[in-house]
């Protein structure tokens, strides 16, 4: 692997790597998507397109320098001694060209289902898939119910039992036909648009749902994390460098942007008539916001899992966890910060540069079994949370 | 309620806004004072303790809490009634406070209650000022109680029985001493950074010397107590030897010498004391969770290494004591994890192909094998320190040979289109081979298995 200072991010050598001292990605695509590898040196590295139809892998703070290593996808197999799970995962990602959070999640679940991370990995993947299916169904139910309740000419409130009975479905079809007619679209179009809509927003659900879907729940957890990590920074006397405040700042920035994006998606569910009438423009807008939310939050589930795992641990383990968190913090790309111009985020980059601790001994021989198991546990909990 | 539900509830505790959480902690503290709600409040406070550690909201000041301030750093929670040198079990507090209340009477306690009504519990100096009269009075009363018992034939045995055990009586002696030197202890605490202390600068060192000098002026026997309090506040006990060297350089050599080897003895005693809980837990969990046992023993060994450094000045006796603890950990690892792991793993591998039964799923069977291998791998990381490398290598070889046989059998059956073999069987076996013998060999099995699956 070779090193070079500040080379363009997408101009790296094929299988060798280069060091990039630039910390702040411009776009989500440049930041890359977290790959839940289990090889300790690659844990939560990121994958992104290399701009030439292939992929490359980004590994932060690898060998003593502050910066990220960028390695051609196929080169990673030569540079790192990977776990068997990671070899299979690596192949799958390459075949599928998985470079978005949604695709990566799908690949991660599929590979865990094989059993290569053991029975616990299979359990976690099954739970994750079941939860996604349930959230999709639940979101669809609440959306249909909202449409019927809000737009039907008479007062209707449908129970799940009613919706699943033939008589109930017939009743709904009648009501929906009336709504479609009011919107001047066909019933089929209305059904299709609602289904597309609920599939799109299933990761956050609808604000009025009693259950928080995955990404909405992640934002709630991120809010709590920010509050607790700040309190730890204030009270622990173990954070002279202010890593906790730095982390809390990045979390706040993510929350600011994430809540605004989610608000925009929720607004459409509060104005169903307008949204369905203008679905041709609203649909792509929701798609864009949902993509940005999933990119924005990509990686945070691993950060939160890591912090949760040391909440009751001795202080030195909390300090170590925080150092690792800073190394893998999902920075908000500069393009997303355009709406945040009034805020002084400029210092953050300098702080990151100063505090990110390099991974040591990355070429040492044997795998640290305890570390690998910890990463596997964290990976499983992040996937199924 | 399932473990998952409890975890979810515990997780929610961290989502309560900070101001609300402070109100909750205050309310629970208040309810704890009412006898009818005491048990429930203590249980709930225990559940929210991790968040309390993070937020550290100001806690309601009570006479008992005020009483405990001089020795609060020494409190710990052993799982059985016992006491380590330099530590005081929390379970000893109630009986000793009851004695104190009885001895001081309403006349002695009323001014304390009045004083804490107006004290800002976040103002350390003010709290300490409010505590001084109580500490003086409690010291006189408890010292009298102890001396009276010592003077009477069989008096100490009677007092021990009344208090509830030898560990409470021993704690009483420590508390009497801590109350005697409450002034220097609390002053030192105010002048040092809050715990965990990772660095003591020259100015702070001066405050420690000052506290040692003032303690010696009150009672030289109190010097170890002061150092135990300091020790409990350090980020690592490994800082102690260097700190003691610096104290000697600062002219406190005479005072340090006066403590004899008590600091080193305390480090070793606390380590031995912890082993009692580790041993009990290992015995309890060795069947159901060998991985957890192996992990806990590894952690304990790491702590021991750190503390061995701290006890370096403690002389040969202390070094021998630490070696004994290490040997005990080795014995525990051998008995609870290593011995029997290979036969158990081999039996569990055999059971993978047994017909389904009500005992558990196929996944549980793989998990059982995985647990045996992982517990051995974890032990292997520290096996050299406790003389177990050879035994673990032998056990791993036995398991490896069994897995080789299973791998060959699986491949044959896959080539023969045996419908009873699934890809999950193959990949879970790959996983076991990886854990036992490394990723290269496991990956070769995966590739051969995939080729056999493709042939189908």
Properties at a glance:
heterodimer; A: 385 residues; mainly alpha; 5-stranded antiparallel beta sheet; 16 helices; 5 strands; 6% strand; disordered N terminus; B: 456 residues; two-stranded parallel ribbon; 2 strands; 77% helix
Quick take:
The complex is a heterodimer of chains A (about 375) and B (about 450). With about 375 residues, chain A is mainly α.
Low-confidence spans of chain B: pLDDT under 50, at least 5 residues?
none
- The secondary structure category of chain A is mainly alpha
Classify the helix fraction of chain B into a percent range. over 70%
Major sheet strand order of chain A: 1-5-4-3-2
- Given the C-alpha coordinates, what overall shape of chain A results? globular
H/E series of chain B: HHHHHEEHHHHHHHHHHHHHHHH
Helical fraction of chain A: 55-70%
Radius of gyration of chain B: 28 Å
Say what oligomer this is.
heterodimer
Give the termini separation of chain A.
Answer: 36 Å
In words, what does this structure look like?
The complex is a heterodimer of chains A (385) and B (456). With 385 residues, chain A is mainly α. Helix content of chain A is 61%, strand content 6%. Chain A contains 16 helices and 5 strands. Chain A has helices at 28-31, 73-79, 84-96, 101-113, 118-151, 160-164, 166-183, 187-201, 214-235, 243-270, 272-277, 279-297, 300-309, 315-328, 346-355, 369-384, and strands at residues 17-20, 33-35, 45-49, 55-60, 68-72. In chain A, strands 1-5-4-3-2 form a 5-stranded antiparallel β-sheet. In chain A, helix 3 packs across helix 4 (101-113) and helix 10 crosses helix 15. Chain A starts with 16 loop residues before the first strand and ends with a helix. Chain B is 77% helix and 1% strand. The mean pLDDT of chain B is 88. Chain B is mainly α and 456 residues long. Chains A and B meet through helix 3, helix 5, helix 9 and helix 16 of A and helix 4, helix 18, helix 20 and helix 21 of B.
């Amino acid at each position: 692997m070779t090193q070079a200072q500040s080379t363009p991010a997408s101009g790296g050598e094929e299988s060798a790597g280069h060091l990039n001292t630039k910390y702040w990605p411009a776009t989500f695509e440049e930041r890359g998507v977290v790959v839940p590898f289990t090889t300790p040196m690659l844990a939560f590295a990121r994958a992104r397109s290399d701009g030439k139809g292939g992929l490359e892998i980004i590994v932060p703070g690898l060998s003593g320098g502050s910066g990220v290593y960028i390695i051609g996808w196929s080169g990673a197999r030569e540079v790192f001694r990977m776990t068997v799970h990671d070899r299979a995962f690596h192949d799958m990602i390459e075949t599928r060209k998985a470079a978005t959070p949604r695709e990566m999640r799908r690949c991660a679940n599929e590979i865990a289902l094989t059993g290569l991370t053991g029975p616990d990995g299979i359990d976690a993947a099954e739970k994750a898939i079941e939860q996604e299916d349930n959230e999709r169904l639940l979101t669809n139910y609440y959306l249909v119910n909202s449409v019927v309740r809000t737009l039907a000419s008479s007062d209707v409130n449908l129970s799940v039992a009613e919706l699943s009975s033939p008589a109930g479905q017939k009743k709904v079809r009648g009501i929906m036909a009336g709504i479609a007619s009011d919107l001047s679209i066909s019933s089929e179009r209305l059904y299709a648009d609602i289904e597309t809509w609920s599939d799109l927003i299933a990761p956050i659900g609808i604000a009025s749902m009693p259950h928080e879907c995955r990404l909405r729940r992640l934002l709630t957890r991120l809010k709590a994390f920010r509050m607790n990590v700040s309190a730890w920074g204030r009270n622990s006397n173990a954070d002279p460098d202010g890593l906790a405040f730095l982390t809390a700042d990045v979390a706040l920035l993510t929350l600011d942007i994430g809540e605004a994006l989610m608000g925009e998606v929720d607004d459409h569910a509060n104005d169903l008539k307008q949204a369905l009438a203008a679905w041709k423009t609203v649909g792509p807008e929701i798609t864009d916001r949902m993509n940005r939310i999933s990119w924005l939050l990509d990686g945070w589930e691993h950060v939160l899992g890591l912090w949760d795992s040391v909440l009751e641990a001795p202080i030195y383990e909390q300090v170590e966890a925080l150092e690792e968190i800073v190394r893998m913090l999902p920075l908000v790309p500069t393009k997303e910060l355009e709406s945040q111009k009034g805020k002084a985020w400029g210092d953050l980059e300098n702080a990151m540069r100063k505090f990110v601790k390099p991974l040591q001994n990355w070429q040492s021989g044997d795998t640290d079994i305890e570390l690998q198991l910890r990463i596997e546990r964290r990976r499983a909990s992040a996937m199924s949370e | 309620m399932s473990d998952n539900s409890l975890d979810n509830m515990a997780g929610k505790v961290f989502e309560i806004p900070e101001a609300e959480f402070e109100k909750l902690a205050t309310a629970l503290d208040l309810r704890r004072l009412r006898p009818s709600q005491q048990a429930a409040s203590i249980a709930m406070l225990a559940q929210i303790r991790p968040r309390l550690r993070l937020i550290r909201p100001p806690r309601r000041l009570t006479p008992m809490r005020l009483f405990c301030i001089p020795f609060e750093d020494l409190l710990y929670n052993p799982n059985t009634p016992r006491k380590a040198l330099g530590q005081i079990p929390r379970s000893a507090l109630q009986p000793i406070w009851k004695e104190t209340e009885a001895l001081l009477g309403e006349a002695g306690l009323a001014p304390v209650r009045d004083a804490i009504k107006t004290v800002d519990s976040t103002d350390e100096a003010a709290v300490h000022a409010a505590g001084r009269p109580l500490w003086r009075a409690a010291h006189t009363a408890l010292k009298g109680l102890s001396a009276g018992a010592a003077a009477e034939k069989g008096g100490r045995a009677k007092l021990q029985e009344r208090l509830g055990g030898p560990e409470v009586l021993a704690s009483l002696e420590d508390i009497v001493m801590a109350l005697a030197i409450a002034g220097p202890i609390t002053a030192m605490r105010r002048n040092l950074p809050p715990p965990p202390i990772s660095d003591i600068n020259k100015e702070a060192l001066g405050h420690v010397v000052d506290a040692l000098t003032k303690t010696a002026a009150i009672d030289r026997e109190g010097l170890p107590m002061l150092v135990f309090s300091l020790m409990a506040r350090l980020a690592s006990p490994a800082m102690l030897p260097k700190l003691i060297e610096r104290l000697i350089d600062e002219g406190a050599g005479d005072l340090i010498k006066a403590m004899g080897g008590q600091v080193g003895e305390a480090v070793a005693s606390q380590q031995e004391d912890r082993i009692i809980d580790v041993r009990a837990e290992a015995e309890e969990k060795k069947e159901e969770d060998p991985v957890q046992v192996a992990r806990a023993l590894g952690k304990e060994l790491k702590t021991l290494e750190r503390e061995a450094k701290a006890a370096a000045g403690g002389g040969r006796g202390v070094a021998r004591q630490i070696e004994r603890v290490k040997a005990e950990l080795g014995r525990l690892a051998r008995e609870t994890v290593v011995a029997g792991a290979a036969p158990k793993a081999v039996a569990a591998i055999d059971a993978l192909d047994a017909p389904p039964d009500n005992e558990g799923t196929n996944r549980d069977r793989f998990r059982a094998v995985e647990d045996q291998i992982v517990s051995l791998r974890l032990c292997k990381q520290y096996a050299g320190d406790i003389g177990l490398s050879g035994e673990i290598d032998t056990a791993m070889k036995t398991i490896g040979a069994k897995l080789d046989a299973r791998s060959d059998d699986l491949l044959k059956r896959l080539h023969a289109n045996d419908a009873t073999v699934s890809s999950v069987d193959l990949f879970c076996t790959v996983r076991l081979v990886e854990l036992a013998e490394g990723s290269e060999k496991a990956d070769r099995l995966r590739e051969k298995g995939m080729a056999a699956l493709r042939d189908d």
